[in-house]
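Appendix B, example 12.
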Amino acid sequence: MKPVVVLRPEPGNTRTATSLRALGLEVRQVPLFGVVPVDWTPPDPAGFDGLLLTSANAVRHGGAGLDAFKRLPVVAVGAATAEAAAKAGFAVAVTGSDDARAVVADARDRGFARLLHLAGRDRRETGEGVAAITVYASDTVPVGTEGARSFDDAIVLVHSVRAATRLAELVDAAGTARQRISLVAISQAVGDAAGHGWQDVTIAPQPTDSAVVALAAAHANTRAIDQRARGGDKHAMSDYVPTDRPRARGPKMGVILALVGLAFVAGLGLMGYAAKKLPWFGGHATTAGMTTAAQKAAAGSSGYIPSQPLGPNGEPQAPAPIDTAVLATREATLAAQLTALETRTATIATDASAAAGQATRAEGLLVAFAARRALDRGVTLGYLEEQLRLRFGQAQPRATTTLIQAARQPVTLEDLRQGLDTIAPDITSTTGDGWLDTIQHQIDSLVVLRKAGTPSTMPADRLARVRRLLEAGQVEAARAEVARLPGANQASNWMEAAGRYVQARHALDVIENAALIGQAGQPQPAPVVMPSAVTETSTVTDESAGSQAAVPKTPGQATGQ
């Protein structure tokens, strides 16, 4: 058995050698290159769409600089490279064969136009739009003459183009004949790089290390068989002669099948003849016989054989006539049950309609309460405007319009309090046409007579009452007090804002009342007519009177709306 020589660098060399030894092969480890890391400065990851990895060495020797590219998708060449990238925490987006150019073209079609290639020092071009940066180097490992001669009469595994080129140089330099060396290459490109003159060059069916190992094992076993045969005839390796005589061959299976088919056809013909000629075979059965057979068939399915009376001549009698009274009783019972079901259905429909009306009323109240909260906070209604129009636009159009307009210029109690503090000096003092009017007003206010228990008319007291009313939320009463102050003509803007506040609250009260009582504009439960017994009476001749009695008044008609 020929030994197998592994040329790839570590740690792959040891993995391949372990797999070969597990198959019972003799292995020689002669690494031609040693992979070492190279200092490099990571570029900005934002300038790239993905990371191109053509070898697992880039992941092993990339160092801390790889952390900056963990967010970029990886385009891997080969399954081993993809596996190493995934173990290192990268997200592999594209995995291709050993052809880097084809993988890059596929990645470009998928949207990865700008790729960063973490490559070795000795590399080949991979295509347009790929920026390469060196992160590792494969330095040559010295191999002496004795190491080169170890390739003689061996199977050499070649995993790269550089390894194939250097192998040819070492063999030629050592003076070893290429005709005594067999090569197993990982790809066609690697086999072509090794040149010609070898004993044989076998290409792996897939560009993977496992395929190379399997091919090397098969090649070594085949060579061992050929050597033992001494002439290359694999049958000469065994002198086994069978001692058992061959068994006599029985009749052919085709003859047996033909005989069985003929017997089956003959049986069918005899059965048809018997059914046609023999009366007892079932061809001319009587009506009674057919009835009995039908009864037996029914008995076979249900287990019950009904008894049927026979006449004097043994024939079955006609069934007894059906009693119409019994049928009428059954019909009446079914009608009563149907009426009960209709009554229950009508009751359920009434309950459902009532529940729908209550739900609509509750939804209207929720919309009204939400609108009040929005006005109190001084924010716009937003989507509540559309809800107000849909639910209350027809029943209370004026209140709805007032509420929407007030919400577009909202006024809050805090706004009124701040505005009152601003105009307080102006509305508590008198500004007459001249100084004589001012002196006259001051003299009149020196002594004020009022009944006990009546509020003071002094401007300062009125202003204090206005503040208390605002704190209590009684804006309408506060507005009336401001109108009685001496400088009320200076508070026109405040009075207008207070008026909008009061109108908005009045509109809210109207909307809430409409939601509570369920006025028109909100969906109402439709009346359900309870089923009752229909009694035919005299025909109504006055069609107009009958139509008026049959049409109930709507809520709008009853209230005059």
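Residues 324-377 form the longest helix (54 residues). Confidence is low (pLDDT under 50) at residues 228-246, 283-290, 522-561.
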